[in-house]
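Issue: copy button drops trailing tokens. Both records pasted manually instead:
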Amino acid sequence: MVVVWAMPNLAIHVRQGARGAVHEGALYASDWGFKLGEVTRPVRLWHGEQDINAPVAMGRFQARHLPDCQATFYPADGHISIIVNHAAEILTALSQAERRILEEIV
């Protein structure tokens, strides 16, 4: 199902060339201006272990180096299927986190 949806959309994304994808790839390997260990806020990370766009090793590295990271890895999911298969769970967690942040502010 995901492949049927993704293929026509992929063609749209690269219609004007691959410059955007190349730029995004360069960002992964460049200095972000901070170290992951300097992040002071809680981080939720969801990663599909079958992701070929962002290898699971990158997600595991980030999870290890972020001081307050709650990571969830899905063995059977990839880059898009994680959203399709786990949207409700992810959105619920984000909504709960937003509520906690707003409570801290008030």
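Record 2 (pasted manually too):
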Amino acid sequence: MIFNSIVLCAVPGQPRITHLSDMQSTSLVVNWEAPTVENGVLKNYQLQWIHNNTYKTRIITGHLTQPMRALITGLGKHHHWPR
């Protein structure tokens, strides 16, 4: 007898951006918390933003535990970040 089991995983809840740090003229660090509802195993995060009317995406994989942060570079100079 063969018994197959399929586990369906739903989309996780959204992570929560807690703050921006290390803000420079062309870069910043995004800090976030994991979703409160994971619905399975998290394999990556996708950070998305718009720069010069172009959508940018960065895939974060690997060690996905708290605290989570990512450096975003290549942003336009002379941008004034909110404080």
